Amino acid sequence: MTRIRLYLPFMLLILPVALLAQGGTSDLRVGIGLSGITYLGDLSEQGYGLRRVSAGAEISLEKLKPQPLGVSFHAGFGQFTEQWDNLDNQPGTRFVQTPFLHGDLRVHVRPWREGVVQPYLSLGAGLLSFTPKDKDGIPLEEGNYNTIIPQLPSSAGLRWQLNPMIGFDLSYTWRFTPTDFLDNIGSEGARSGFDALHAINLCLQVDLGAPKPSDGAATPAPGPATSHPEVAAKRPQDQESQLPSQPDAVEEPLAEEAYDREGAIKAIEDDVFLYYESKAGETVEGLAKRFRVPPDVIKELNYLTSDKLKKGTYLRIPHVGAP
Fold first, then answer.
1. pLDDT of 212 strictly over 80
2. Using CA atoms in the order 102, 108, 112, 117, what is the torsion angle rounded to 10 degrees?
């Protein structure tokens, strides 16, 4: 069992490697954060429940998709402690804390992906390895139960998009486990049924790369004259004052030849972008006309499903330069 536990971190690496193999770091969201962890089990005092919280950490990897439904990988570690004040008078008093390691895949739903604040729900499945210990840190494995078990996490959270590349995620996670021995105590405890873990997570997330739109059209001719300054690097703080400030009055789609598709694709490959915060009433078609970037490129690059834009939406727009 010890050997299996040592190999578990390497087994968990298979899942993120599989995600990376589907497209490298392009279109990938990486997260790292802290967790506050507690549990409900045999040493949770009746009528009080969650009272002691222990620290943990978690990393996450997510392949970004324009659809509301997505998949992410999560792995982390932490511990939980007994939840009973008068511990000496209760059964199973040898248990004090349980360190654990977890990894799982989750399917999540983000109904509103285009706002600054994005709520979501997720369900998943994975593995959890745990080791109950006494007050001296000595493991308490009795040999009559498995210490590597399946676990089913479910989460609800909010993601706050600071800018096109960085965001914060605040979530609550409940982990169902099919065991009554996370605390090394079975039917002797105060609560019947399986033990469960609870966690509050705060995570910093960074979007790496960007999806490259398909080049389905022939080389376009230069579009109509448009003026906006050259941008040498993708620095939002330097570009904000250089962006056009007034939305277009006419937002009808232009002919394909009016857009610089080839220039947009080259800008993506060279990693040169304008960063833009949408204003009230603006649309993808209006921005496409202003920046001479095809609307489907703007949508795919920013995971948009609608032509309408909410005020305050952060967008990455390929910089194609003056015609």
1. no
2. -10
